Amino acid sequence: MAAEDRLDLPMVGERQSLREQVAHALRAALITGEMRPGVVYSAPVLAAQFGVSATPVREAMLDLAKEGLVEAVRNKGFRVTELSDRDLDELTQIRELIEVPTVSRLADSARAEEFERLRPVAQEIVSPADRADLLAYVDADLRFHLELLALSGNVHLVEVVRDLRNRARLYGLSQLAERGSLTDSAREHLALLDALKSGDAAAVAHLMAEHIGHVRGIWAEH
After folding, report:
1. Are 108 and 165 in the same domain?
2. CA 111 to the chain's CA centroid
3. Which helix (H) or strand (E) holds 54?
């Protein structure tokens, strides 16, 4: 395999089923743009990179196909589905409609202890940003946002946002990392927690809208 064709994929262990671990890693590779639209990926080739058999990789790719993230190519493998600028705009609009009011309603100094429990997760986003580990960055970022939204008590809302984020493409992450500005984006999560602890709903709404806008800008950097 040519070096330029090799993906930066982790070896997988035994904590979850291999199928789940592979699907999780592939979602992260899709979101960061590590796996590119239009490229056909072979299950045996990916399996060799993961250090597992082809079966859990095929099963994981079929799961991603059900989610609309990839499509099967007969006798060849799976192709990453492409998102248009309109798709990205619409995903952004839905996130804004859901996340901005939901998170701003959480602002309450009486809930400071709950927000502080999320601070280590927010700091976990900064560490991979510093070392330009894009897959770890996306994983920590997703975990932070879903755990924050979970404080609303609406499990269905959390699942909707999880699906929206899984459909995203952060093609510009590598450019941000190369410019040394990915850490600035990561630190926005810490500022958000400070605003939530202070009970300033207006500041939280502003920070959330600005953060989602920054993410849309990252999406746009093909």
Report:
1. yes
2. 26
3. helix 54-66
The reported pTM is 0.76
Q: Give the pLDDT score at 222.
A: 45
Is the backbone of residue 218 left (phi > 0), alpha (psi -120 to 50) or beta?
alpha
**Model pLDDT for residues 89-123, shown as the tens digit of each residue:** 898 899 999 999 999 999 999 999 999 999 999 99
| Cα–Cα distance, 182 to 172 (Å, whole number) | 10
Is the domain of 204 the same as that of 156?
yes
- By DSSP bridging, strand 40-41 and strand 70-73 are unpaired
Same domain flag for 96 and 169: yes
CATH label of the domain that carries residue 109: 1.20.120.530
Which residues 6+ apart lie within 8 Å of 114 measured at CB? 151
pLDDT at 57: 94
